[in-house]
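quick one, two chains, predict together pls
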Amino acid sequence: AQSVSQHNHHVILSEAASLELGCNYSYGGTVNLFWYVQYPGQHLQLLLKYFSGDPLVKGIKGFEAEFIKSKFSFNLRKPSVQWSDTAEYFCAVSVPEDDKIIFGKGTRLHILP
Amino acid sequence: GAVVSQHPSRVICKSGTSVKIECRSLDFQATTMFWYRQFPKQSLMLMATSNEGSKATYEQGVEKDKFLINHASLTLSTLTVTSAHPEDSSFYICSAPGLAGETQYFGPGTRLLVL
C-alpha cells in the first residue's frame, strides 16, 4: 500500500529564508504527487501537482517541487518565504489506476515577521 | 492522536439508489468538517463545508440537493449521495480540524462505485 512521509512536523523560519519541506512516498509504480496548503481556518488548496513530464513543477505563490523518482521524493521549495506562507502543508500521493489519495501527516510552517 | 474515520470504506450501488457516507471524529469534537471529492487524474476538490448546528456551505457547482450533508453532532457528519449515477463514482474524503485549528485530520476515504 502507498504511504507518504513528511519528516518535518513543525518548521519555523524567518521571512526571506529559503524553504524546503521533505516528502517521501512508498510505492513502486507510477504515482501522481500533490502538495496542498491549508491556511489557518480554511480548507485545503492545491499548491501544485505532478502527473508526468518535467519533474520540476512550479505552483502558485512561488512554490515549486521536484520529483526525484530514484529517491521516491517530492520536496517542496520556495526561495524566499513570506509571513503569509504560515500554514500547514500536506504532501499527497495517488496511483493513476486508483483515484484514492493518501495524505502525509502535514508540516506546520510558521514564518516569523 | 486525533483520528477521523469514514464508513463505509468502499460501497458499490446501483444507479438511482442513495448512499450515505459517515465521517466521525473519534476522540475530539469538530464543529466543522470538510468534504472533498477526488476526480480521476485530478486533485482533490472541496465539495462543501459541514457545520454543526447549521446548514452546510456548498462550493460553486456542487448540487446541494444531490449531495446532502448533515452534521448531526460534534463528532459526526454524513454525506448522502442521492439518486446516484455512474458519474458520481469517485473517492470521497472528509477532514476535520483539530483543537484550535492546529491541524487537519483526514479520514481514510470512501470509494463509491455506481453501476
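Chain B touches chain A at residues 34, 36, 38-41, 43-44, 46, 49, 90-91, 93, 95, 97, 101-104, 106, 109, 111 (CB under 8 Å).
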